[in-house]
Amino acid sequence: MAAARILLRRSSFAAARRLLPTYPPLPTAASSAAARLVPAQAHSSQTNPPSAQPKRTKTFSIYRWNPDDPTKPQLQNYEIDLAECGPMVLDALIKIKNEVDPSLTFRRSCREGICGSCAMNIDGDNGLACLTKIPSAESPTTITPLPHMFVIKDLVVDMTNFYNQYKSVEPWLKRKDPPPVPGKEIPQSKKDRAKLDGMYECILCACCSTSCPSYWWNPESYLGPAALLHAHR
What we know:
Mean pLDDT: 83
Order of helices and strands: HHEEHEEEEEHHHH
Subcellular location: Mitochondrion inner membrane
CATH topology of the domain at 57-157: Ubiquitin-like (UB roll)
Radius of gyration: 37 Å
Strand content: 15-25%
Strand order of the largest sheet: 2-1-5-3-4
Main location: mitochondrion
CATH superfamily of the domain at 57-157: Beta-grasp domain
EC number: 1.3.5.1
Shape: elongated
CATH class of the domain at 57-157: Alpha Beta
Enzyme class: oxidoreductase
Catalytic activity: a quinone + succinate = fumarate + a quinol
Low-confidence stretches: 1-9
Structural class: alpha+beta
Distance between the termini: 118 Å
């Protein structure tokens, strides 16, 4: 009976082993080392690396004048790769200042055409550097200060007279009658707001005034289109 029980247990154990799933043998230290020596196959997306963008060199001829060395102003040429630069003229100026010549001086702030700080003359036309695209022509792009303005340094001009003319028209709100409720704001109707279309967009960049010949020849007396626009408003 004892021998029969042993044989029964052995046969049951063998049958149970046949029902268990089979697994591959665990790797040895030698097989693991050999596996590490097998080069990994590159992914399909890595077989053809993207080709580098071709270099696109552009020359910028920029007005330079330093009050600490008040010699004759000159145009200085700078070459940059447009493939590594943003699309706007202001992007090129910032790249030149950061990577080529830190002494280059110009105004900038919002980079969105709101503040008017980066107004300058680009290839003969006044405009904002942050909104002016870099010309695609191979010829050099010439950048100078706003015309007929006193230059402080490089592309920075003195805006004192321009702001004084703006101030002279007193462009702030002035009531003829006292408010019905002192200290309480007076809401503006949509109809009154619509009257300001075409007049409130001015950001005082001085591009229009410095483009006007009358402003060039008589800047002390002629207020210029920017100040007159705010006076009309």
